[in-house]
Amino acid sequence: MTSWFGLGRRFSEWCTVALMLALVALVYQQIRDVLAPSGMAEGGPYDNAAAYPRGVAILLLSLVCLQILIQIVVRRRREGDALTWRQMARPAAVILIFGLYLGLLGILGFHLASAPMLFAIMVICGARQWWQMAATSLGISFGLAWFFESQLDVVLPGGIFNLNIPW
Q1: Could you count the other beta carbons within 10 Å of the beta carbon of residue 104?
Q2: What does the alpha-carbon distance between residue 122 and residue 137 come to, in Å, rounded to a whole number?
Q3: pLDDT in tens, 51-96
Q4: SS3 100
Q5: Of 28, 15, 80, the residue nearest 54 (C-alpha)
Q6: Would you state the pLDDT for residue 142?
Q7: For residue range 106-121, what is the model confidence (pLDDT) as tens digits?
Q8: What's the CA gap between 119 and 124, in Å, rounded?
């Protein structure tokens, strides 16, 4: 029995694997076509603008390989196990929020876009401790900003208000 566009759970899992592999390929394509010609994909990790995206892509690729191994070797689910619209709503909402965040990042800047995005994802995932969620999203947002701006010397997008914190 299938219910999500007539697709079974296993097909959906393989589509997710394909999407993640496409993201890894996109990272390496951007490194090759954008960073390498300008000389920013060479040198050590502190001089190499491609080091962080490459590291994230390698981590993502490792997790995708683990997922493939789980899908092939450990077949816990029955083939007829179907996905419903209700099961797809939460992951789709998270992807939509993240896409909206990426779209607004250049306009609003990191400091104004990140905390609301984290808060919205917490709401979608079922958290309901509003003050704790607000503090956590602000803490994570400012913690990441501090780490990237003060420790890695990365300039985060300031947006139309040009908000940057002098650490």
Answers
A1: 16
A2: 9
A3: 778 888 899 999 999 888 887 776 655 555 566 777 778 888 998 9
A4: helix
A5: 28
A6: 94
A7: 899 999 999 999 999 9
A8: 9
Query: Are residues 15 and 88 in contact, defined by beta-carbon separation less than 8 angstroms?
Result: no
Q: What is the pTM of this model?
A: 0.62
DSSP summary character for residue 38: T
C-alpha 157/C-alpha 138 separation (Å) is 17
d(CA 36, CA 106): 24
Of 141, 134, 136, the C-alpha closest to 112 is: 141
Q: What is the dihedral of CA 132, 134, 135, 136, to 10 degrees?
A: 80
pLDDT at 3: 45
Query: What is d(CA 55, CA 61) in angstroms, rounded to the nearest whole number?
Result: 10
Contact between 126 and 132 (Cβ < 8 Å):
no
